[in-house]
Amino acid sequence: MEKKEPIRRRILALRDGMAKEERDRKSGKIAEKIIRSCWYQEADILLAYVNFRSEADTGAIIRQALSDGKKVYCPKVEGERMNFYQILSLDDLEEGYCGIKEPRAKEKNLFFGQKAMSGRCLMVMPGSVFDKKCNRMGYGKGYYDKYLDSLLRENPGLAYHMKLIGLCFECQMQERIPAETYDRKTDGVVTEERIYEQQNRERRL
After folding, report:
1. pLDDT in tens, 104-138
2. Scanning 1, 8, 60, 83, which has the fewest C-beta atoms within 10 Å of its C-beta?
């Protein structure tokens, strides 16, 4: 099987090559699918990445969640770790790690597992490449894998309250990608064309 780094470079070149108008149109379709999904409808809490460069745009999802009264948390890189902090508006984000928009690190706004134990939590994750069995390839730093390993180890019951959904464009989907034991698998992947679920089911909406 092809190694991770050549796959990542090749797929990111495809994503970067899309015109902004095409990315915006496809991002809108992805956002519609997420907002209509039972994962979103049932969630009290949304943990959402803030898109950077050519990633699928999460702005519409975040704005809708805030409008719907959900608690919204976004990631912030702090040294070798990543944490999520609550935002009340997209205006709460400022330029941070590598130029990515991040929330301010206020302890009272920090997400921790117990906050989700009484309801349901949806995390929408970025990635460079996904496959049809919902394996995810990140950008090489392992921030999400490390964050989730720590969060779920400290809160063993949280896995029953949290859904992990990858967002990407259809051009980022592969039939199969190499996956290590430490790579965190998603529950589903949403593209502009399809919803892939871990149970090997595929739906076209």
Report:
1. 999 999 999 988 888 899 999 999 999 999 999 99
2. 1
**Which residues, at least 6 apart from 107, have a Cβ–Cβ distance to it below 8 Å?**
none
DSSP characters for 88-155? SSGGGEEE-GGG-EEE---GGGB--GGGGTTS-EEEEE--SEEETT--EE-SSS-HHHHHHHHHHHH-
Q: Which residues contact 135 (CB under 8 A, 6 or more apart)?
A: 176, 177, 179, 183, 185, 186
Cα dihedral 177, 181, 186, 188 sign? positive
Token pair recorded at residue 79: 């040294």
Amino acid making up residue 25: R
Q: Which two three-digit tokens encode residue 9?
A: 């470079």
Question: What is the pTM (predicted TM-score) of this model?
Answer: 0.94
* Separation CA 125–CA 144 (nearest Å): 8
